[in-house]
Write the structure tokens for this entry.
Amino acid sequence: MSDSWSAGSETRGGDWTGEESGGTPFPENVSGAPDGGAGLWRMLSCLGIVVLVLAVLAGGIVWLFQDELFHPFGDVRACEGSDVQLPGVIRAGGASIPAGASDVHYFTRNGSAVVTFVSNQMPDYLHHAGILPDGEPLFDERYGAKGVADDEIDLPDGLCGSSLRGPIWIYQSTSATGSSVSVMVERSPTVNDYFRVPARAVVTYNLP
């Protein structure tokens, strides 16, 4: 009886000893040490926040300096490929373009310039530039000729901005310095003897 109990005890004792040494291991991190996966996740989250902040900062810088980054000379009026910057007040063909002109763009290449703008003061500009003498009809064929009458007319090569709308009138003149000046102006489609109000003009001339 005593031997049987001893054998059972030894067996149970052996089983228990086996579980301690070779059975299911104790859970990890019982000491409270941080889990490796959670630490990696926190690191990636922090990295994502840093990347987002940098992206926002970069976007703000691009927005603030977009004129300098995407336009020649940092001038929003200059079209891509221009090689000379025009002054703040543009003198096109011997006279300053009208004050208050809108949608102004220019393209310069090899000593020549093409400028486009929209204004309701085209007669004054033509007189000041000496392209049309004072008192003469706007569409006197001694100073100009009819252009194409298409609904949309492409601008000269290199010049950016909206297309001309036909019909147009083309003036050819010679400036005081002897250089050639060409001016295309949108005519009114309903009033035969006047321009559109406002009218888009394209002036081609040599730089001084």
Observations:
- Residues 139 and 193 are 7 Å apart (CA to CA).
- The radius of gyration is 40 Å.
- The chain has a mean pLDDT of 81.
- Residues 36-64 form the longest helix (29 residues).
